[in-house]
From TrEMBL:
CDD domains: MPP_MPPE1. GO terms for molecular function: metal ion binding; phosphoric diester hydrolase activity. It holds the Pfam family Metallophos. It comes from Drosophila rhopaloa. This is Metallophosphoesterase 1 homolog. Residues 46-278 form the Calcineurin-like phosphoesterase domain. One of its GO terms (cellular component) is membrane.
């Protein structure tokens, strides 16, 4: 019976390590990037940025797949939030896989699961960006989808957030078609209002800026689900996509016109996006650094990652943090299983040898 006990200990150790410890071990390799310039360096903003968790809904995927992958996302996020203690967390869209397919009751359950998985200590904001799987592509957007996303997650169109004197503009990429629809018109009006607000921060003495709130000006940071226009990941300085595909405007990336409009109105200094499920660092059409964040879910990427950004009003540094790879967990369980088989084989060999010796001894007694 000792070999059964040994196998039980091996499997239990593998289970505890893979399901509770491994995320901490892997994520400890990551560190907040440091800004070397002296100005503002004593109190930078530390932002954790992830994308595309794609929580499964009632229609797609097996329940066991949903249970296991979401368990690992929960463990990874909780490990990251404890280790890094960010000032703010951004999730860049496609929070849900079936957000545009479920009833209001199912959406409530979706939101409850999402907020439970991505729970943060009090005082750390979780800012959730709308993605095409949350409210639908442009052709499918409906006031019902938009209003409930805004109702439950406080964001659906275009918003300006100011944290530690750093300005973030969060955009609904699907409302950037500029075709005169109600969502596009609303988004364009909000973009123009934010543009005026930023202008008045920069030039507070102008007559039209008398009633505008007086935050110190710094160039904003753009956050949205779709990347700005690029032909493909061949334009990336770094990327981890397993193969290169040509991107379609308005489907994989923003159109050239929408990208140029954002540049003209906002004059951003840095951009983050998701949607492609793969990491990319590029200098985009606007001449600024853009980071496309890989999917946070094993279901979309076997080696997921997220971004750590240290930001001040006049500088930033961004680093990629690799998460626990799915293959590492599978290999760990496979190794534990093989070790159990070796223990069992060794024990069987001992039993066979013992029986042979006992049979030989009995044979000698008979003779």
């Amino acid at each position: 019976m000792r070999f059964l006990y040994a196998c039980f200990v091996i499997v239990l150790c593998a289970l505890i390590f893979c399901e509770y410890v491994a995320d901490f071990v892997v994520l400890q390799k990551c560190k907040w990037p440091e800004i070397k310039r002296k100005k503002y360096v004593d109190d930078p903003l530390r932002a954790m940025i992830l994308a595309d968790p794609h929580l499964l809904g009632p229609h797609r995927g097996h329940w066991l797949d949903k249970l296991y992958r979401e368990w690992h996302m929960t463990r990874a996020f909780q490990a990251a939030s404890r280790l890094f203690q960010p000032d703010v967390v951004f999730v860049l869209g496609d929070l849900f896989d079936e957000g545009d397919m479920v009833s209001d009751k199912q959406f409530q359950e979706y939101v409850w699961r999402y907020l439970k998985m991505f729970h943060l200590p009090p005082g750390i904001p979780l800012i959730s960006v709308a993605g095409n799987h949350d409210v639908g592509f442009h052709y499918k957007m409906h006031p019902f989808f938009m209003s409930r996303f805004e109702s439950y997650l406080n964001n659906s169109s275009v918003n300006l957030y100011t944290i530690k004197q750093i300005h973030f503009v969060v955009i609904n990429s699907m409302a950037m078609e500029a075709d005169g629809c109600m969502f596009c018109t609303q988004a364009e009006d909000e973009l123009k209002n934010i543009s005026r607000t930023l202008h008045c921060m920069k030039y507070p003495l102008e007559a039209e800026c008398a009633r505008t709130r007086r935050h110190p000006y710094s160039q904003p940071i753009l956050l949205q689900h779709f990347p700005t226009y690029r032909i493909s990941d061949t334009m990336c300085e770094e990327h981890d996509a397993p193969y290169i595909e040509t991107f379609r405007e308005r489907f994989h990336v923003l159109s050239k016109d929408a990208t140029d409009k954002l540049g003209k109105l906002l004059k951003p200094r840095l951009a983050f996006a998701g949607h492609s499920h793969h990491f990319c660092h590029s200098v985009n059409r606007l001449g600024i650094d853009e980071y496309t964040v890989a999917s946070f879910s094993w279901r979309n990427k076997v080696n997921p990652s997220f971004m750590l950004a240290t930001i001040t009003p006049d500088d930033y540094v961004v680093s990629k943090c690799k998460m626990l790879p799915q293959q590492f967990v599978f290999n760990s369980y496979l190794s534990a299983g093989m070790l159990c088989l070796i223990v069992i084989a060794f024990q069987l060999r001992k039993c066979i040898q013992s029986r042979r010796q006992s049979s030989a001894a009995d044979h000698r007694k008979v003779n």
